Amino acid sequence: MTAVPHAIPGDAVLSCQGLGKTFGAVRALHDVSFFARPGEVTALIGDNGAGKSTLVRCLVGVHQPDEGAIRFNGRDKPYADPDGARKAGIETVHQNLALVDELTVAQNLFLNREIVRRVGPFRFLDRRAMRREAARMLSHLSINVPSVDQRVRRLSGGQRQAISICRAVGAGAKLVVMDEPTAALGVQETGNVETLIRRLKAEHVSVVLVSHNFDQVRRLADQVWVMRAGRMAASVRAAEVSGNDLVALVTGTR
Question: What is the CATH superfamily name and number for domain 1-89+174-254?
Answer without folding.
Answer: P-loop containing nucleotide triphosphate hydrolases (3.40.50.300)
